[in-house]
Amino acid sequence: MSQRVVILLGPPGAGKGTQATRLGAALGLAHVSTGDLFRENLSKGTALGQKARGYMDAGQLVPDQLVLDMLFDRVSKSDCSKGYLLDGFPRTIPQAEALEKSLKAGGAQVCVLNLRVPDALLLERITGRRTCKSCGNAHHLKYSAPKVEGRCDKCGGELVQRSDDSAEVFGKRLQVYREQTQPLEAFYEARGLVRSVDGARNPDQVFQDLQSFAKEAA
Ligand code: AMP
Questions:
Q1: 64: alpha, beta or left, given left = phi > 0 and alpha = psi -120 to 50?
Q2: Per-residue confidence (pLDDT) for residue 1, from 0 to 100
Q3: Per the domain annotation, does 139 fall within a domain?
């Protein structure tokens, strides 16, 4: 059986992380988030984390080669052998080309799910987001408030605002998304791989659509 690769596209705050955790479990695919991998490297103080920090804090993209080395190392692990779900990758055309080249050799089956959300809602989602320092689980002050203030419902860890989730850095991240990542829609549309989903609805409805599109594409 060929390897399955599901790519989640969408601007910051579209709900990629929330949906990817659920969708990965439902489809039996490893959830690979390049943002999470960079944050893990940052918290462990690795050389890669040090290199990525400045770009992340400024809302800029980490240079392609650093991302690609990290990503290909991650997807070579045994939990990705049947397939994986990509969250936050690719974010540039060169990243998409590198992925395509590596997947062609193995004849992987690729499906791209694009989450569409209006800008005003993105800002509200990002600035209200609080992330668990221990397990990475995300809450929202208004839409998914924790049961105990400041504490993660899943593990009880401390909830903090990611340094790049301020309104200022969000503006930069959205600009970078429009300039460097949105062109990927056309890249994948030209290959007939994209299904777009209205990501402004409640998470359960969004999940149902993502799941049925991913299953249809299989
Ligand atoms: P995320 O958690 O996906 O919002 O990613 C957080 C930050 O990590 C981004 O704003 C970038 O600085 C960096 N990053 C994550 N994935 C990539 C990628 N595929 N290419 C370049 N930078 C990335």
A1: alpha
A2: 66
A3: no
